Amino acid sequence: MTLPDGRKLGYAQYGSPTGKPILYQHGFPGSRIEAAQHHDLGKQLGLRVIAIDRPGHGWSSPHPGSTLLDWPKDVERLTEHLGLEAYSVLAVSGGGASALACAYALPPAKLKAVSLVCAMGPPDIGMQGADIAHRLGWPYGIRFAPYWAGRMFWRTMAIGRLDLSEEERLEMLLKESRTAPEKDRDIFDDVDLMRLVVRSNSQAFAQGYEGVWDDGKKSSKPFGFEVKDLRDDLEVQLWYGKKDVFVPPLHGVQIAARLGGRARLRMEDESHAGIQIHWRKEILEALRDAM
User: Fold this and answer.
1) Cα–Cα distance between 107 and 23 in angstroms, integer?
2) Domain 11-289, second-level architecture
3) In this protein, which residues make up the domain named AB hydrolase-1 (predicted)?
4) What tens digit of pLDDT does each residue of 39-94 get?
5) What is the rounded CA–CA span in Å between residue 125 and residue 131?
6) Each residue of 187-231: pLDDT tens digit?
7) Is 155 exposed, middle or buried (0-12, 13-18, 19+ CB in 10 A)?
8) Alpha-carbon distance 190 to 233, whole Å?
9) Measured distance CA(235)–CA(120) in Å, rounded
10) What confidence tier does 178 reach under pLDDT thresholds 50, 70, 90?
11) Hey, where are the domains in the chain?
């Protein structure tokens, strides 16, 4: 769709076209393609999953000079464009800041629930429990040394090797996955899912690197609002993995604490990938039931 200022906002729809709408906030890096993993479950559960490219990702135009709180304005215009009267928000990983901004700013009469899955909270929570790469990369690397953070990403991770073809990156990703924990082998041995990961990240960088790093910077500095100020009647569902070393479970604990116990926190014996994939049916069912 075209926004009032002429920018394009890219989105894709999965699941049931007539189902309950879920506004999907992709990870970092990520794109609308990421939510394709929910297509079959969405049809089964009667959910319409609407995944939106953030500025500078996929089909969405860059939005230079924007802040985190500009994002819910774009999201609201999309909901009006689609004629949605009620909806929920689902975010994974690096989409946490965008989802919290939506929770804070979208119309209370229409936003029914928010679900955060291994999602990043405000940067002052810190990264205790994360591995060294994520402790250094977030928030300090992406905010203050994006060149070096990007260099590490491009050189060491399969999804960051944009100098390779998608098939070469897929092959590299499948080789990397051989070191995955036994409990997660079903995830990383799923060639179709890994191909989806590669395609989604190709779309994240379809317009270059600037949009992705700008997105990271917005999430790694003060949000412009406090989590505790989310409205009292909004259902917030939190799903975190005890073994997650990308987004440590501390983020779920702290978000719940800042909401004064109003959030429903689930802490499972899972990794970053495991909580997203092994629990996706339960996550979608809980969000559906809250609408």
Assistant:
1) 14
2) 3-Layer(aba) Sandwich (3.40)
3) 20-272
4) 999 999 999 999 999 999 999 999 999 999 999 999 999 999 999 999 999 999 99
5) 15
6) 999 999 999 999 999 999 999 888 988 999 999 999 999 999 999
7) exposed
8) 39
9) 18
10) confident
11) 11-289
